């Protein structure tokens, strides 16, 4: 994937920081952040990818000392957070207030800690909408190409009115809804939501202060809280879905991808 067109001026204006939430209590793959991938823990592989995006400092927000130790040993920065925090968004905000209490970083990119093969260009792409006024949050979507994923409730769909401009590399549209259902109806592309977010700092501050919303609880999709409260989310159309590691089979696939990259 080509490098996303994020200008040096935009990065200077936003002073982005990348935050990676991580916790050991995964139900399907216990101890996931420390799972070995070609000689390094998975959380370190994600940190490496975030560093390669070259948009700003990278901080791992974790809740266990062994995760912090692994990141520190690799040369990264880790911040301990309360293990009882309810979500990754709460975790990154808690870490953010510790590492940047004066609010120098005006944009915060939340990269999930189970994306060890993510293309750094995707991380950069999340900042593209902030070159335009009116967007509070940015996230990513890729067209669904496998028919079985169109009806799979585990594949979250992002609804946005992209124009038929396939030649345009980094199109941006306003996200209207997110759902586990097959939406929108009738002919046309469906988009797989990629759970990587960029927030304007003030939007993140507001988001974590709100209780879970009605639709958020119904769909079990945290981003609906932002839409319910009137925040504007931009969807950047990209051409690949990064591998999220949730099972031992995913872990084996990640090892194979990095071994051949």
Features:
261 residues, Spore Coat Polysaccharide Biosynthesis Protein SpsA, Chain A, 2 domains, five-stranded mixed beta barrel, 10 helices, 32% helix
Q: Could you give a short description of this structure?
A:
The protein has 10 helices and 11 strands. By secondary structure, the protein is an alpha/beta fold. The protein folds into 2 domains: 106 residues, Spore Coat Polysaccharide Biosynthesis Protein SpsA, Chain A; 123 residues, Spore Coat Polysaccharide Biosynthesis Protein SpsA, Chain A.
Question: What do these coordinates show?
Answer:
This protein has two domains: 9-114, Spore Coat Polysaccharide Biosynthesis Protein SpsA, Chain A (Alpha-Beta Complex); 119-241, Spore Coat Polysaccharide Biosynthesis Protein SpsA, Chain A, CATH 3.90.550.10. 32% of the residues lie in helices and 22% in strands. The protein has helices spanning 8-14, 42-53, 65-73, 88-99, 120-125, 147-150, 201-209, 214-219, 223-228, 248-259; strands at 17-22, 36-37, 40-41, 58-62, 77-80, 107-110, 137-143, 157-160, 172-179, 191-200, 233-238. Strand 2 and strand 3 (40-41) form a beta hairpin.
Topology (SSEs and partners):
Blueprint: H1 8-14, E1 17-22, E2 36-37, E3 40-41, H2 42-53, E4 58-62, H3 65-73, E5 77-80, H4 88-99, E6 107-110, H5 120-125, E7 137-143, H6 147-150, E8 157-160, E9 172-179, E10 191-200, H7 201-209, H8 214-219, H9 223-228, E11 233-238, H10 248-259
Parallel strand pairs: 1-4, 1-6, 4-5, 7-11
Antiparallel strand pairs: 2-3, 6-10, 7-10, 8-9, 8-10, 9-11
């Amino acid at each position: 994937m080509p490098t996303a067109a994020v200008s040096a001026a935009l990065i200077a204006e936003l002073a982005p920081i990348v935050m990676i939430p991580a916790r050991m209590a995964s139900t399907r793959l216990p101890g996931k952040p420390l799972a070995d991938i070609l000689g390094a823990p998975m959380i370190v592989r994600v940190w490496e990818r975030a560093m390669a995006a070259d948009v700003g400092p990278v901080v791992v927000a974790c809740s266990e000392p062994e995760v912090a130790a692994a990141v520190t040993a690799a040369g990264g920065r880790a911040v301990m957070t309360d293990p009882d925090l309810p979500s990754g968004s709460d975790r990154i905000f808690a870490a953010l207030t510790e590492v940047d209490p004066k609010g120098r970083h005006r944009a915060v990119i939340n990269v999930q800690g189970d994306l060890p093969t993510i293309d750094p260009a995707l991380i950069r792409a999340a900042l593209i909408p902030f070159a335009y006024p009116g967007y509070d949050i940015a996230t990513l979507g890729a067209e669904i190409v496998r028919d079985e994923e169109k009806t799979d409730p585990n594949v979250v769909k992002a609804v946005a009115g992209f124009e038929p401009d396939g030649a345009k590399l980094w199109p941006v549209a306003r996200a209207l809804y997110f759902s586990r259902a097959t939406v929108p109806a009738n002919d046309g592309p469906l988009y797989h939501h990629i759970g990587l977010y960029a927030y304007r700092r003030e939007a993140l501050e507001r988001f974590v202060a709100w209780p879970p919303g009605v639709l958020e609880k119904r769909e079990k999709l945290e981003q609906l809280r932002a839409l319910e409260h009137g925040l504007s989310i931009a969807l950047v159309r990209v051409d690949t879905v990064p591998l999220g590691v949730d099972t031992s089979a995913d872990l084996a696939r990640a090892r194979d991808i990095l071994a051949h990259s």
